[in-house]
């Protein structure tokens, strides 16, 4: 079979990869066919009917997103009839869509808005047919506004095909169809809060629960000491929103912007990422010494944790008891930080900037109050942070770099790669190898753990012991690994893996549900590259070499897995399979 | 020996009209009159008359009673069975033709239907496999499975020119020939999810001759190499389901389904799957989704079910009527089949006729017969006081046919010239009292209710078209809004995902074309 085939798009002959659909083939002719429900990384469903084209010799119009090309196919993308039909379809969708663009959270990022502009729709030709559907803000992470839903089905593809969670489904029929959960409430569902549905939603029908107002109120309250932490993925996800090349690392400007917003102390989640490696690495070394139980599975991704609690509660004992870096930071902010800076912890407001919507849920888990307060008070997504920055007119691209405050702001290269799939694995192995063998790895780069392949499997030799490792990102991929573990467990066989890293979102945190829109896999890779570049250029690339990490054990925690660690940095899990 | 047989027509219509109560009463009265050794009461399948209440056939007197109630029973026993005088007020008009059953000499002068699919309906007891076998039943399957290669079976169906009777008219043999060479497990699915308003042919075929469908599926299964057949049947079709299940059980007991049929290596079985009442599940890919336990939404095509169907395996989906044509084609040959109907549409078609005609019901006639012939020769003409105004052919999504098209032959191609479709074969006859806007709003209501919600054009378009057609009916629609309706329907035809939304244009555009004058009177 030929790898490319010729097709004719609007009279122009182009060679396109065999197996392309018309929408892909047209791009080779320089034509981006107007589309709405199509999303590059998802199975096309053909729901919207916007991307129609004509194929010579065939009856009717074809959906270019679902129709594969055949050799010498003659495609017409812009006859008067096609353009009228496209416009009419969008007018129909607009007739069923509220007119609150001016105040909609998605305004400016809305694909329906953009398409309407693109097609030159300048008035409402068709009378409105709207139905009242209440907003569902029951979830701690995700708000559903069904009136704004255009039923493109992307969220279903993300939730069902990619994440295999099936929290949401289309209910009702015809004009009354609504994408919702069986109970009608996101809170009472198997939703794991990952927010991948938000990432792909073209309109304002799905968005995070905003905490911007609460954070402004804290910043403007003179009685509060407001401190902030930022996840590793944030620093490489800001550039694209300020017209800089995607993936550019803006860490210094990020610190400065936070200071300009009025945060009293700016720290970095990367610090507790290094701390996680100390704790989790020690857990792993303990298991190495005691020869199990295997596997040890990472616990930094709160979407993954809720997924495990819901769908694989039997694997609880395999999960590292380490809190995520966000929660470690939270617990330390009201203990270690309060002590060292001599501040009343009751006055401290801890804010996180996260690429993640599940972090909002995680912060409010009842277990996450080991400091005696809510360890983390508010969680903002990358998007919310950018909104705040834009609200006060800060142009991140134009401001100077700044440094974080002392105590919980320094980090190693190992910490920064936490933000991408494979990063935690690589960071943990750098430290664990050295602590076990007393020797440094030949190279800090563990290439087998890198890249966006769904499941990455490899082995590493540690003093004669061959360790089997697996890295999975996206929960559909996680299932593949977990099912093997489960099967071995049920058959009484040894675990096929020693160490597993799982991230809920495809690409890891760079692809989190709180990241800037347009978060295709391609974009996620660009962000990941930014993190690896930072790591590669750092002097300190191993968590245990971070001087502030050494200091916290000397001044406060004593030793990894010690008494204080257990109290503040470790947690437990609960079964959530009741809704299955 | 009994001197007289009273046959109760049992189908869903007569059951709903109280056939069992009347039957019970009749048996009681016959016993009261001590006639139980002279008069035998039994049941038969549908004779394809509807709207005529409880129907009883009396042999050898050749009397057809309709609209019989419990209160009439005594009179029938006293007057007819005791004194030999049929109760005239209950006897159906003698001009009515029921094939294979001689009612009166007058019938001989009327044109006969041509029955291939319905040859046994109303003749044999549909619940008796023996009666089916005694009338050449399962001979075609035996011939195919024991003496022919699968290719030869596909070939003969191809040559017969049989086209899908579910609506689209795709050549059946061609469909089979795409799937037959594919390796691995394959399925036959019979689409009996008859949801088109006014269509009930599949129900009456199933109620009247369920074994014929089984035989058709068996032959199809052999031809394409399937391991299993499923009948996806409308859940409300209680009697069909009951009779088909009995037929499947009996066929299995006779070794006609199951392992090593006719002592060959061919094994095949059939199961029933009940639909839950969504119109869209009559679309073959939505039907497959529903069979798999999913939401009844149509799938992306290609791949077509013939390549990737049920459980992602190659699957032939054929309509009840299509499959029921197959046994006779195998038995009597392609040329015989081609001797009926037209060149491009051989064979017969089963129509359901409704509306303002004297004998609404089911007929089977050769393809290519005109609507005028159907009304006058098979449906007893227009009702008294009714003048033909329009007909809708092919169910709710069918085009309106005006008077000037009455002499168009009914087949796929001839109707296509008028931008109409044969569809499922439902023929709704409207008279001068029907207002076209009233008719349109009822059609639009149906589609608004049945749109599955998958694609935007259909989901929103059906709602808007219904709202606007209500306004038209209330004389509140401006002319330019009607033009907008046409534009929306036209866009739906071009951009809807499946035939449901694509076909709404037909009733609207045909109303625009043939009844514009009437519509003008309604515009604001």
Describe this structure in words.
Chain A has three domains: 4-78, Ubiquitin-like (UB roll), CATH 3.10.20; 93-209, Alpha-Beta Plaits (2-Layer Sandwich), CATH 3.30.70; 214-579, Rossmann fold. Chain A has 19 helices and 17 strands. Chain A has helices at residues 22-28, 80-95, 111-118, 154-162, 196-200, 212-219, 251-261, 269-290, 302-311, 325-333, 336-341, 358-363, 382-391, 413-416, 423-437, 475-490, 521-536, 547-557, 563-569; strands at 4-9, 12-17, 52-55, 61-63, 74-76, 142-144, 169-171, 178-180, 206-208, 225-230, 265-266, 296-297, 348-354, 378-381, 455-462, 465-473, 499-503. In chain A, the strands form five sheets. In chain A, strands 2-1-5-3-4 form a five-stranded mixed β-sheet, sandwiched between helices. In chain A, strands 11-10-13-14 form a four-stranded parallel β-sheet, sandwiched between helices. Chain A has a four-stranded mixed β-sheet with strand order 12-17-16-15, sandwiched between helices. Chain B is an alpha/beta fold and 524 residues long. Chain B has four domains: 4-109, 3-Layer(aba) Sandwich (Glutaredoxin); 129-338, Rossmann fold (3-Layer(aba) Sandwich), CATH 3.40.50; 348-431, Ubiquitin-like (UB roll), CATH 3.10.20.600; 436-522, de novo design (two linked rop proteins). Chain B has 21 helices and 13 strands. Chain B has a five-stranded mixed β-sheet. Chain A binds chain B through residues 44-50, 52, 60-61, 63, 66-68, 81, 84-86, 88-89, 92-93, 95-96, 125-127, 129, 150-151, 153, 169-170, 172-177, and chain B through 278, 295, 297, 300, 302, 448-457, 459-464, 467, 484, 487-488, 490-491, 493-497, 502.
């Amino acid at each position: 079979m030929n790898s490319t085939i010729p097709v004719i798009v609007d009279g122009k002959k182009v060679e396109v990869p065999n197996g392309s659909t018309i929408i892909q083939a047209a791009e080779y002719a320089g034509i981006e066919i107007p589309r709405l429900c199509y999303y590059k990384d998802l199975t096309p469903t053909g729901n919207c009917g916007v991307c129609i084209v004509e194929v010579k010799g065939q009856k009717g119009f074809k959906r270019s997103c679902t129709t594969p090309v055949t050799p010498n196919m003659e495609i017409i993308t812009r006859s008067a009839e096609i353009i009228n039909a496209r416009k009419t379809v969008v007018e129909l969708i607009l007739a069923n869509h509220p007119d609150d663009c001016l105040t909609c959270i998605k305004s400016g990022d809305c694909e329906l808005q953009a398409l309407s502009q693109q097609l030159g729709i300048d008035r409402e030709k068709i009378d409105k047919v709207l139905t009242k559907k209440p907003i569902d803000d029951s979830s701690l992470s995700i708000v559903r506004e069904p009136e704004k839903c255009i039923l493109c089905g992307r969220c279903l593809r993300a939730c069902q095909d990619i994440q295999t969670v099936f929290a949401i489904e289309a209910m009702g029929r015809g004009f009354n169809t609504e994408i919702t959960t069986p109970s009608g409430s996101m809170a009472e569902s198997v939703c794991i809060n990952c927010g991948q549905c938000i990432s792909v939603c073209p309109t304002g029908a799905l968005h995070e629960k905003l905490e911007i107002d609460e954070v402004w109120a804290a910043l403007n309250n003179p009685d509060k000491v407001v401190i902030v932490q930022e996840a590793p993925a944030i620093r490489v996800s800001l550039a694209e929103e300020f017209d800089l090349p995607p993936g550019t690392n803006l860490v210094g400007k990020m610190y400065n912007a936070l200071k300009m917003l009025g945060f009293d102390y700016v720290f970095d989640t990367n610090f507790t990422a290094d701390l996680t490696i100390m704790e989790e690495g020690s857990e792993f070394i303990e298991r190495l010494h005691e020869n199990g139980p295997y596997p040890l599975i990472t616990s930094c991704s709160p979407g993954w944790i809720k997924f495990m609690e819901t769908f694989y509660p039997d694997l609880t004992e395999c999960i590292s008891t380490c809190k995520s870096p966000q929660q470690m930071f939270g617990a330390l902010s009201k203990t270690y930080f309060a002590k060292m800076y001599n501040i009343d912890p009751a006055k401290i407001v801890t804010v996180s900037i996260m690429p993640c919507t599940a972090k909002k849920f995680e912060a409010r888990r009842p277990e996450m109050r080991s400091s005696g307060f809510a360890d983390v008070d508010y969680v903002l997504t990358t998007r919310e942070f950018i909104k705040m920055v834009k609200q006060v007119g800060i142009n991140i691209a134009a401001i100077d770099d700044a440094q974080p405050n002392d105590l919980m702001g320094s980090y190693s290269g190992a910490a920064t790669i936490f933000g991408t799939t494979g990063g935690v694995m690589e960071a943990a192995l750098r430290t664990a190898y050295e602590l076990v063998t007393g020797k440094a790895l030949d190279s800090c780069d563990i290439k087998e753990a890198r890249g966006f392949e769904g499941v990455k499997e490899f082995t590493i030799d540690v003093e004669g012991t061959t360790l089997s490792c697996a890295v999975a990102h996206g929960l559909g991929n996680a299932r593949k690994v977990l099912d093997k573990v489960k099967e071995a467990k049920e058959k009484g066989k040894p675990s096929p893996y020693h160490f597993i890293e799982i991230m809920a979102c495809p690409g890891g945190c760079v692809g989190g549900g709180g990241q800037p829109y347009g978060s295709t896999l391609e974009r996620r890779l660009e962000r990941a590259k930014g993190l690896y570049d930072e790591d590669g250029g750092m002097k300190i690339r191993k968590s245990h070499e971070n001087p502030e990490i050494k200091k916290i054990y000397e001044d406060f925690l004593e030793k990894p897995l010690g008494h204080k660690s257990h109290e503040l940095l470790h947690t437990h899990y609960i079964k959530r399979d009741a809704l299955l | 020996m009994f001197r007289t047989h009273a046959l109760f027509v049992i189908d869903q219509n007569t059951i709903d009209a109280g056939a069992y109560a009347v039957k019970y009463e009749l048996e009681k009265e016959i016993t009261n009159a001590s006639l139980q050794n002279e008069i035998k009461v039994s049941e038969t399948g549908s004779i394809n008359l509807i709207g005529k209440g409880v129907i009883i056939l009396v042999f050898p007197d050749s009397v057809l009673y309709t609209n019989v109630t419990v209160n009439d029973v005594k009179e029938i026993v006293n007057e007819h069975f005791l004194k030999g005088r049929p109760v005239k007020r209950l006897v159906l008009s003698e001009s009515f033709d029921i094939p294979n059953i001689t009612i009166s000499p007058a019938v001989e002068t009327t044109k006969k239907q041509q029955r291939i699919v319905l040859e046994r309906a109303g003749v044999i007891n549909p619940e008796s496999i023996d009666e089916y076998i005694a009338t050449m039943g399962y001979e075609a399957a035996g011939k195919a499975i024991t003496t022919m290669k699968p290719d030869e079976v596909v070939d003969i169906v191809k040559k017969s020119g049989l086209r899908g009777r579910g609506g689209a008219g795709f050549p059946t043999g061609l469909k089979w020939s795409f799937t037959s060479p594919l390796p691995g497990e394959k399925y036959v699915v019979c689409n009996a999810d008859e949801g088109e308003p006014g269509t009930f042919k599949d129900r009456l075929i199933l109620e009247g001759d369920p074994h014929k469908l089984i035989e058709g599926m068996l032959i199809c299964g052999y031809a394409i190499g399937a391991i299993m057949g499923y009948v996806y049947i409308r859940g409300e079709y209680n009697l069909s389901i009951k009779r088909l299940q009995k037929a499947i059980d009996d066929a299995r007991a006779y070794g006609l389904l199951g392992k090593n049929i006719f002592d060959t290596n061919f094994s095949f079985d059939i199961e029933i799957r009940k639909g839950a009442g969504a119109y869209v599940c009559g679309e073959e890919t939505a039907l497959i989704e529903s069979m798999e336990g999913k939401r009844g939404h149509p799938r992306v095509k290609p791949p077509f079910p013939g390549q990737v169907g049920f459980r992602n395996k190659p699957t032939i989906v054929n309509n009840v009527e299509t499959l029921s044509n197959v046994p006779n084609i195998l038995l009597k040959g392609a040329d015989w089949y081609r001797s009926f109907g037209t060149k491009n549409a051989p064979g017969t078609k089963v129509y359901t006729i409704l509306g303002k005609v004297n004998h609404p019901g089911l007929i089977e006639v050769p393809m290519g017969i005109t609507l005028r012939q159907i009304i006058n020769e098979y449906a007893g003409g227009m009702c008294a006081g009714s003048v033909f105004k329009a007909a809708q052919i092919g169910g709710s999504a069918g085009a309106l046919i005006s008077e000037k098209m009455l002499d168009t032959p009914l087949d796929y191609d001839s109707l296509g010239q008028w931008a109409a479709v044969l569809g499922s074969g439902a023929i709704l006859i409207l008279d001068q009292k029907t207002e076209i806007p009233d008719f349109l709003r009822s059609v639009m209501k149906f589609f608004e209710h049945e749109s599955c919600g998958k694609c935007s054009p259909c989901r929103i378009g059906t709602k808007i078209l219904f709202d606007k057609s209500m306004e038209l009916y209330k004389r509140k629609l401006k002319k330019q809004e009607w033009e907008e309706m046409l534009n929306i329907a036209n866009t739906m035809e071009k951009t809807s995902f499946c035939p449901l939304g694509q076909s709404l244009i037909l009733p609207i555009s045909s109303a625009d074309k043939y009844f514009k004058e009437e519509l003008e009177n309604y515009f604001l």
